[in-house]
Every structure is written in C-alpha cells, then in structure tokens.
Design a protein that fits this description.
Strand content: 5-15%
Radius of gyration: 16 Å
Largest sheet: 6 strands, parallel
Helix content: 40-55%
Structural class: alpha/beta
C-alpha cells in the first residue's frame, strides 16, 4: 500500500513532466538500438538497465540472445563498471548470471523498488556523479521512467517493444501487457 501511495503521489506531482515522452530521443523500440554514440552525445557516463522486458522476457531469468549479444558488444565501448541492472525482481539466479557473464556490471539490490529513485541515488553515490550523467532504460513509465523524473535530471529512455514470451511466461507477459495499458490510460488522464 505504501508503494502504491508513493506511486500515485509522484504521478500527480510529476504529471507536467511527462511531455518528454513525445521526444524521439527518449524512446527506443528495442535495447539493441541503444548506442554508445547516442549516450555520449547526451553526455551520459552511467547506464541503468531494467531487466524484465528490457533485457529478458518478463518472468525469465535469462537474457534474450539478441540482448545478450548487444550487451556484450555495447560493454566493450561503454565500460561494464558504468552499467547497472536495477530490477524490481532481483532474484539470485539473475544476480549470479551477471556475476558469471558480465562480472563488472553491478546488480543493484537492497534499495526500494522503482519508482522510488533509491537505485539512481545508489549509482550517484557509488560513482560520485550528478544524476544528469545517468540514463535509465525501462519499459514501464510508472516504474523506472518515473524514478528518473523524481530524481531530478536522470535521462529517461522508454523502451517501446519489451521482450515477452507468451509461450513460456504467459502470466507474466499478460500482466506486463495489462500494466502498460493501464499506464496509457493514466497518462491520458493526468495530462
């Protein structure tokens, strides 16, 4: 209940800031479209990635093959030390996967769930940087994207076509789909 009240309070408090969603630079279809060149142009030094939908199908503990290839290639130019994973479902399986496959990418844990900006603040403190030097990619407006707005100047990137697998993760995929529909309705109502 506390998280829902926090969410509703901050949707209303930040409702005038949602206009940025109309700008192309704040949206990508798939994570594979995100480039180091783009982040450098925006003066971004640190990147926070959501897990469900952004790197893996909702409910999966394994990265999608194309997302894994992208992250492998991306992290050659954008140092792994400057990439963070912030998931509202940080399972031990996911953390151990990253420790094994991407050992220098930090999996943020022990912080309040998004949209609380604690994960962003964690990166700011760890890297001694300003929030405007951080970009966060999420497929949900009222979790990671709202956390960016609450934190101040964190650069939000909304992923428009999240990974889903209705065959393996039917319930998680349907819930994600419904959540996004509810988001659209709420965004329309609060504008």
């Amino acid at each position: 209940m506390k998280r829902i009240l926090f969410l509703l309070k901050n949707i209303l408090a930040n409702r005038k800031k949602f206009h940025f969603l109309r700008k192309k630079k704040h949206k990508i279809k798939k994570i594979t479209q995100l480039s180091v060149k783009f982040l450098t142009k925006q003066k971004i030094k640190f990147l926070i990635l959501d897990f469900d939908g952004v790197l893996a199908s909702c409910g999966s503990n394994v990265l999608e093959k194309e997302a894994s290839r992208w992250l492998q290639s991306f992290s050659l130019c954008f140092k792994q030390e400057n990439i963070f994973i912030l998931s509202n479902n940080p399972s031990d399986i996911r953390k151990s996967f990253f420790k094994k496959k991407f050992p220098k990418i930090s999996f943020i844990t022990n912080v309040e769930k998004k949209p609380n900006p604690e994960g962003i603040i964690f990166v700011q403190k760890k890297k001694k940087c300003h929030s405007r030097e951080i970009a966060l990619v999420d497929d949900k407006v009222f979790t990671g994207i709202l956390a960016c707005l609450i934190s101040g100047e964190t650069f939000p990137i909304l992923l428009l076509e999240p990974y889903v697998n209705y065959d393996k993760y039917f319930l998680e995929s349907i819930l994600s789909f419904l959540y996004k529909k509810i988001e659209r309705i709420l965004l329309f109502l609060v504008r």
